[in-house]
Amino acid sequence: MKTDPSIQVHDQTALDYDRLASEYGYNFPDALFGLCFEYLQPGQRILDTGIGTGLSALPFSRAGLDVYGLDGSTEMLNICRKKNIAVQLKEWDLRTVPWPYPDRFFNHVVACGLFHFFPDLEPTFREAARLVKPQGIFAFTIKAPEPESKSGIDQKFITTTIDGVQIFSHYESYIHELIAGTGFKISKALKFLQSRGIQGQYDTYTAFVCRRLSAADEHA
Fold first, then answer.
1. What is the DSSP letter of 108?
2. Which domain holds residue 117?
3. What pTM, to 2 d.p., does this model score?
4. What are all long-range contacts of 175-178, with beta carbons under 8 Å and residues at least 24 apart?
5. Domain count of the chain?
6. Max Cα separation, the chain?
7. What pLDDT, on a 0 to 100 scale, did the predictor assign at position 90?
8. Residue 134 belongs to what H/E stretch?
9. Which pLDDT band, with edges at 50, 70 and 90, does 149 fall under?
């Protein structure tokens, strides 16, 4: 039985997910793919963690990359599978590491609209560092805390609960610490707004693109 409330909610809402994303003006995939585009080549392998129904994977597939996807939701994967945009999909709780691929298997790894369901991001960053080839990219989005919520220099995130699911907003200081500690270097970062589905109400997110350093780069 699935115990993660976020997976349960995604199973329950899978059939309406794409429609709701369109109605809410869900722009995560456009923002992340646009930042990644210059680093991509047709035929490269990319892992989409939390691939869901494939909204974030679609532009990478159209650009000629071989898409692999992991997700904990059976129903979301069923919808994604029907779109024929991935060479392989696996049902996998992303909290369980290691992920089911060998070291340096991917040119790139993306996590689009995923991290606000996770409090501790270190295991994910370490898995991305293990799987990405040198000079490949790890691209992801985070939900930014409200400016007035900062309450301590050592705080990693704050949390709210929406429809029974905890949502985590991570501080950029925590993200920078993880990036530096796992052999990545930030190439690009972009803040953008996402509608909450209520007119005039938006949340701030940040998209990051990080390059995987080679051993020589790390010791330079």
1. E
2. 5-218
3. 0.93
4. 175/121, 175/142, 175/206, 175/208, 178/121, 178/122, 178/125
5. 1
6. 50
7. 98
8. strand 132-143
9. low
